[in-house]
Amino acid sequence: MNRRGQAMVEFVVAIIAVVVLFAALVQIGLLSKVDTDMMNKAREMAGEAVVAPVLGEPASDFIADWSKGDDEVNYSVDDEFSEADTFEFENHIVGYSHTADLFTKVGPNLVSGLLGNPYSVMNGMVQGESSKEVDLLPVIRDMVYAADSIKVKRTVWMVSGGEVF
User: Which pTM was predicted?
Assistant: First the structure.
């Protein structure tokens, strides 16, 4: 008789574990869908900014170097960049690309157009950003993660292609 009670307890524990695992899979699926939607929306916003005209000479930040933040993880929120200028960009990047050779081999291209005037083709960087709060399922909120929601945020940077007016 004692074995029957033990089997019932084991069954209840197993059912609870299966329900939590199933809920976790559903929650991960929901978060993945929202993440994909936010990435697409951020790309759309950046894409619209890419073709928008730039008034005056663009004041773009050129990145000379990127440093890890306190968490020692590359490309995370606490990382910082050091600024460069168009002279450094032209000498250290465009200068090493052998633009004349490139032009003779492939014809007109974006990189060859940068020699002498980096702004002739590249007007800096534009940003698209999108975020959304995702409500957690009650079983996840109560048994796994003690919060009502998780914020999903995506940021996309693209090179601007708009004409300078």
Answer: 0.57
